[in-house]
Design brief:
The protein has 180 residues and is of the alpha/beta class. Helix content is 36%, strand content 18%. The protein is globular.
Length: 180
């Protein structure tokens, strides 16, 4: 089983499945100890929540998005180094949940590696076949994605974070969604 995630400061988009069977699950995890808590306490809480949610799954590969930093950015660019450090910490702790995988198949992707500059909504439209696009996801795959509502704490549409995890998973198994 392959596990993919898209780390966030308050949420973790999670997707998983196999190369042969495709997508088998996709869901959102909230930081279980609250949105204001940061640092290793929050990272460990997210790690525990992920591990508990995936009890019984035999995870042997992991793929996730690593934070992108841009050369020459300044504090005025909107890139917060503390936030990037938080995302690195979340990735580190979540990896530790899967002892068996630790020294085997762990792959991290920068955003531009798996989605280029494709806007989030355009990516979702390709997954589900909006407009005249042929859907990338099968009807069964579309039906198993659990999409959360807008987060009541941060007022953010977190469903796109789930779709990011799906995109990372699809990229990792070689299902191209960037054309079409």
């Amino acid at each position: 089983m392959i596990l993919a995630w898209d780390p966030g400061l308050r949420h973790l988009g999670v997707a998983g499945g196999t190369r042969q069977g495709g997508l088998l699950f996709a869901f959102m995890l909230d930081n279980p100890i609250g949105h204001q808590v940061r640092g290793s306490e929050a990272h460990k809480a997210m790690q525990r929540a992920l591990t508990e949610r995936l009890i019984g799954f035999d995870i042997d590969e992991i793929a996730f998005e690593k934070p992108q930093t841009y050369k020459g950015t300044s504090y005025n660019s909107g890139v917060n180094q503390e936030d990037l450090d938080e995302l690195v910490g979340i990735n580190y702790y979540c990896q530790q949940s899967f002892e068996k995988v630790r020294f085997r198949k762990i792959t991290s992707y920068y955003p531009h590696e798996w989605k280029r500059n494709l806007p989030k909504q355009a990516m979702v439209n390709r997954f589900i076949g909006a407009g005249n696009l042929k859907p990338i996801l099968t009807p069964l795959e579309q039906s198993i994605i659990i999409l959360p509502k807008t987060c009541i704490i941060c007022n953010k549409d977190v469903s796109l974070d789930v779709y990011d995890a799906v995109g990372i998973f699809l990229h990792h198994i070689g299902r191209n969604f960037l054309t079409g």
